[in-house]
Design a protein that fits this description.
Four Helix Bundle (Hemerythrin (Met), subunit A), Rossmann fold, 2 domains, seven-stranded mixed beta sheet, three-stranded antiparallel beta sheet, 43% helix, Ribose 1,5-bisphosphate isomerase, isomerase
């Protein structure tokens, strides 16, 4: 009997942000589909389709989730057993892609960090932090300023991780970014989605930080695995900006007054504010996003749905 309970529990963890961050979500989705596939004995295509739809509907903005699911779902086979084996193989390939990409980005991005720099980071990007930690492990004397990243306070996770590495770290409220920008040498953030025109969709507040950095002539670096680039935007689709529960922002006493509360989880940073995007295949200008989508991911249209497959990911 297919284990849909496994898929539903995984979906809840993504929705409730027990599993958070684009890279972690992508890896978790691939792992879930892998374990689910092992439980399917018949009607493999139909059951995998249902499982993928449950996962796909959890976080609409995270293209890494879309690409992870589509990568696994491009399995092939003459029968259910062959399809199962190929789906499991593809899931394992994607998981390796996630694991190796982050290490490569850390090595490439660390070369852009100079000794003595103070770095500002926002939210809790495992990829951005890999760059910072790699630079520190290379012996560079760096300090980090991290935002709280309200309303979920992902910045608290960031400072704990950096402090655990022994990196001098300062936590600030989001609204203090402009005040502290004068002390910053470089901004490093992660990505939830990169569009075909090189724009960045990331944690709410990122665009304001990029604007402050541009005003102060501080380099703004994005760290993004190539599976965070959005093939759908190549065909004119807009990225859906997720809005989360108002209770994350305001207490019930405020909500009971009838006050309207908006809680977007992400915003859009124009490519003009981005100096560099560091990927596992190299550091690129945002204008090269189109090339990444066409050459790295590959694309095709099948039955009206966009299907993507990575090329040479290892």
């Amino acid at each position: 009997m297919p284990n849909f309970k496994l898929v539903e529990e995984s979906a809840k963890k993504i929705i409730n942000m027990e599993v958070r961050g684009a890279s972690r979500i992508a890896r978790f989705a691939a792992e879930t589909l892998k374990e689910f596939a092992k439980t399917v004995e018949k009607d493999f295509d139909e059951n995998m389709r249902k499982a993928s739809e449950i996962l796909m509907n959890t976080r609409p903005t995270a293209v890494s989730l879309f690409n992870a699911i589509n990568y696994v779902m491009m399995y092939k086979g003459e029968n259910d057993e062959e399809k199962k084996a190929d789906a499991i193989r593809r899931a394992e390939e994607f998981i390796r892609w996630v694991d190796t990409a982050k290490q490569k980005i850390g090595e490439i991005g660390a070369k852009r960090i100079k000794d003595g720099w103070t770095i500002l980071t926002h939210c809790n990007s495992s990829t951005a932090l890999m760059v910072i930690k790699t630079a520190f492990r290379q012996g560079k004397n760096i300090e980090v300023i991290a935002t709280e990243s309200r309303p979920r306070y992902q910045g608290h996770l960031t400072v704990k991780e950096l402090a655990g590495e022994g990196i001098p770290t300062t936590l600030i409220v989001d609204s203090a970014v402009r005040y502290f920008m004068k002390d910053v040498d470089c901004v490093i953030v992660g990505a939830d989605t990169i569009t075909v025109n090189g724009a960045l969709i990331n944690k709410i507040g990122t665009s304001q930080i990029a604007l402050c950095a541009r005003e102060s002539r501080v380099p703004f670096m994005v760290c993004a695995e190539t599976y965070k680039f959005s093939p759908a935007t190549l065909f004119g689709e807009l990225v859906v900006i997720e809005e989360r529960d108002a209770r994350e922002v305001a207490p019930e006493e405020i909500l009971n007054l009838g006050v309207k509360v908006r809680n977007p989880a992400f915003d859009v940073t124009p490519r003009e504010y981005i100096d560099l995007i560091v990927t596992e295949i190299g550091a690129i200008p945002p204008e090269m996003a189109y090339v990444i989508i066409r050459e790295r991911l590959g694309y095709g249209l099948e039955m009206g749905e966009l299907k993507v497959s990575a090329k040479h990911f290892d």
